[in-house]
Design a protein that fits this description.
The structure holds two protein chains of two kinds. Chain A is mainly beta. Chain A is built from no helices and eleven strands. In chain A, the strands form two sheets. In chain A, strands 2, 4, 5, 6, 9, 10 and 11 form a seven-stranded mixed β-sheet that branches. The mean pLDDT of chain A is 92. Chain B is mostly beta strands. In chain B, the strands form two sheets. In chain B, strands 2, 4, 5, 9, 10 and 11 form a six-stranded mixed β-sheet that branches. In chain B, strands 1-3-8-7-6 form a five-stranded antiparallel β-sheet, with no helix packed on it. In chain B, a hairpin with a 6-residue loop joins strand 4 and strand 5. Chain B starts with a strand and ends with a strand. The model of chain B has no long low-confidence stretch (mean pLDDT 92). Classes of the chains: A mainly beta, B mainly beta.
Chain lengths: 116, 112
């Protein structure tokens, strides 16, 4: 069964450094998403992406963050100048249709980011 | 502000027993409501999706209900198994966009 994959599974970085989290969505999916989950808290929406542009973003997704689909398979989340509070599990998800429709979002296993 | 509240926060039941988890939401305008299962350290997995016009949806031993008038939903788990131990998350989508509004989840522990 096709699945969303994410790399790395765990990323440790120093405060102020840039990190890139990578995701490979399911191959025939057109809509891509990033979420984060701070330890012990609820999952939070960051951004959705379709047709090579951002469809929607939350107030969390400020200028520190950017997303890119550099090729036909990868979807990346870049965090510039990381802060301690960026430490969280970051989930990538993809769907065939926008979630406004009743279409299932498939989540990856997540990347745990630890900022020291 | 869109909010999704779940209860109870945690629940312990014996294997084979049934349980019901609750979700109240204030997301507007409403598009759909989803229940996800999240195992520790893993991404959420979709169980059910319901639109405004649906009031019940089943997926195996999981049955979700929706009352759009009172803005409440429940997830009923029948004949629980040890593998049902996980966090169950209620997620509500608004018509206006792509963002999913997540509840904090109910942590379910099924014991032998």
């Amino acid at each position: 069964e096709p699945e969303v994959t994410q790399t790395p599974s765990h990323q440790v970085t120093q405060m102020g450094q840039e990190v890139i989290l990578r995701c490979v969505p399911i191959s025939n999916h057109l809509y891509f998403y990033w979420y984060r989950q701070i330890l012990g808290q609820k999952v939070e929406f960051l951004v959705s992406f379709y047709n090579n542009e951002i469809s929607e973003k939350s107030e969390i997704f400020d200028d520190q963050f950017s997303v890119e689909r550099p090729d036909g398979s990868n979807f990346t989340l870049k965090i510039r100048s990381t802060k301690l509070e960026d430490s969280a599990m970051y989930f990538c998800a993809s769907s065939e249709a926008p979630q406004g429709a009743t279409d299932t979002q498939y989540f990856g296993p997540g990347t745990r980011l630890t900022v020291l | 502000k869109n909010q999704v509240e779940q209860s109870p926060q945690s629940l312990i039941i014996l294997e084979g027993k049934n349980c019901t988890l609750q979700c109240n939401y204030t997301v507007s305008p409403f598009s759909n409501l989803r229940w996800y299962k999240q195992d520790t350290g893993r991404g959420p997995v979709s169980l059910t999706i319901m639109t405004f016009s649906e009031n019940t949806k089943s997926n195996g031993r999981y049955t979700a209900t929706l009352d759009a008038d009172t803005k409440q939903s429940s997830l009923h788990i029948t004949a629980s198994q040890l593998s049902d131990s996980a966090s169950y998350i209620c997620v509500v989508s608004a018509n206006s966009g792509y963002a999913l509004n997540f509840g904090k989840g109910t942590s379910l522990l099924v014991t032998p």
